[in-house]
Amino acid sequence: MEPQVVDRPEKSRYEILAGDDGTETAGFAEYFLAEDEIAFIHTETDPRFAGRGLAGRLARGALEDARARGLRVLPYCPFIRGWIRKHPEYADRVPETRRARFGL
Questions:
Q1: How many domains in the chain?
Q2: C-alpha distances in Å from residue 9, one per residue of 6, 13, 72
Q3: Is the pLDDT of residue 20 over 90?
Q4: Is residue 102 a contact partner of residue 77, using CB atoms and an 8 Å limit?
Q5: What is the CATH number of the domain that holds 82?
Q6: Model pTM score
Q7: Do 44 and 27 contact (CB within 8 A), yes or no?
Q8: Cα separation values, 5 from 13, 71, 99, 103, Å
Q9: Domain span at residue 76?
């Protein structure tokens, strides 16, 4: 089963589900949502799933959802920030006045 990214608003995080049956939480990206901004604060991957590219899929899925919802992104999480640096097509989600603060 293909891994999928799901928003868990009750936990304030996106999760990537993987494993044999596609129901195991392989990683998550915690966020704080306020009005039209989403601040990513922490990303973590279960070591059992390391090396499979799931963290990148998680970042892409979360940022795609933020784009679809018209949310501005504040990448306080070092992983999300670094991922945006490697994929500058997502930098437009970070408010222009705050990009320098995040090194974007």
A1: 1
A2: 9, 6, 17
A3: no
A4: no
A5: 3.40.630.30
A6: 0.94
A7: yes
A8: 10, 17, 26, 26
A9: 4-102
